[in-house]
Amino acid sequence: MKNWKLLTVVMAMLLLVLTACGSKEEEVSEETNNAAETETETATEEASAFPLTIKSTVEGYEDVTFDKAPEKIVVFDYGFLDTLDALGVDVMAVAKGNFPEHLAKYADDKYLNAGGLKEPLLEDIAAMEPDAIFISGRQGDFYEQLSEIAPTVFVGTDSSNYYDSFKASVNIAGQLFDKQEEADAKLAEIDKALEEVKAIAADSGKALVTLYNETLSAYGPGDGSRYGHVHSVYGFTPADESLENSTHGAKLSYEQVLEINPDVLFVVDRVAATGGESNIKEAIENDIINKTTAAQNGKIIYLDGALWYLAGGGLQSELLKIQEIIEKLS
């Protein structure tokens, strides 16, 4: 009888052990399955980004659908090149020109020559067999020909909607190259700098934005003005509301500058931007301009020509532009 009782206890304990082992195996199996399902879901989510349809930053250009992220990339717009550089995206070829300092590495022969900013080397580009070409206004006349070579996307800024079109360009890079998180972090940094420059602008009086190219051109504060964002985005009060809102600006004599009499005179050096030998300070700081409030208060602000004239609209360049103004007006 005692033996039967002992045997019953042993059998019960054995059954308990087997049941526990079975539960553990089921747990491990379930965890493994869940992990596999999570990996599958993640892979599916990543794959679901494509096909991806990209809209250009301005109207008038066709949407482009990519089945996968392009690898062989040709870039003409220096702002977009700047953004790709900031996000760590490699490019195959660029338009060769007078690069701003932070993009100087692209002058190296490591990066193929796609031509000048206004003169694409169409046959050379075709021979490269690119997966994508990114352009802006200076290449607009070649859009159809470039589109025949590879999917071509307009990524330049729109002077009528500067900051939003800049962010749209950044988001194109973020989505297409799976860099949206990094892009958002850098945009947040720019937004923070914007708050700082707006505070400076509020205490700076009236500002006039000009471009020096042996003569002066001035830019209005409204939609369509190349440098209207100095007023609409940075917050500087315009010294003259009636100035022309255009890409090229309106010619302005030194006497007219004195008549407008800005508290801050911004001068973009186009001569230096395009590789010429600039005499900008000698030309601007003459007897007439020196009578302005800006000159008398030391508020003639010379802006980096290559940065402002050629490379605006990039993650790095937009921050550098704001920081330049903050530094020179602080």
TrEMBL record:
<feature type="region of interest" description="Disordered">
    <location>
        <begin position="26"/>
        <end position="48"/>
    </location>
</feature>
<dbReference type="GO" id="GO:0030288">
    <property type="term" value="C:outer membrane-bounded periplasmic space"/>
</dbReference>
<dbReference type="Pfam" id="PF01497">
    <property type="entry name" value="Peripla_BP_2"/>
</dbReference>
<dbReference type="GO" id="GO:0005886">
    <property type="term" value="C:plasma membrane"/>
</dbReference>
<dbReference type="GO" id="GO:1901678">
    <property type="term" value="P:iron coordination entity transport"/>
</dbReference>
<dbReference type="InterPro" id="IPR033870">
    <property type="entry name" value="FatB"/>
</dbReference>
<dbReference type="InterPro" id="IPR002491">
    <property type="entry name" value="ABC_transptr_periplasmic_BD"/>
</dbReference>
<dbReference type="InterPro" id="IPR051313">
    <property type="entry name" value="Bact_iron-sidero_bind"/>
</dbReference>
<comment type="similarity">
    <text>Belongs to the bacterial solute-binding protein 8 family.</text>
</comment>
<keyword id="KW-0813">Transport</keyword>
<keyword id="KW-0732">Signal</keyword>
<feature type="signal peptide">
    <location>
        <begin position="1"/>
        <end position="22"/>
    </location>
</feature>
<feature type="domain" description="Fe/B12 periplasmic-binding">
    <location>
        <begin position="72"/>
        <end position="330"/>
    </location>
</feature>
<protein>
    <submittedName>
        <fullName>Siderophore ABC transporter substrate-binding protein</fullName>
    </submittedName>
</protein>
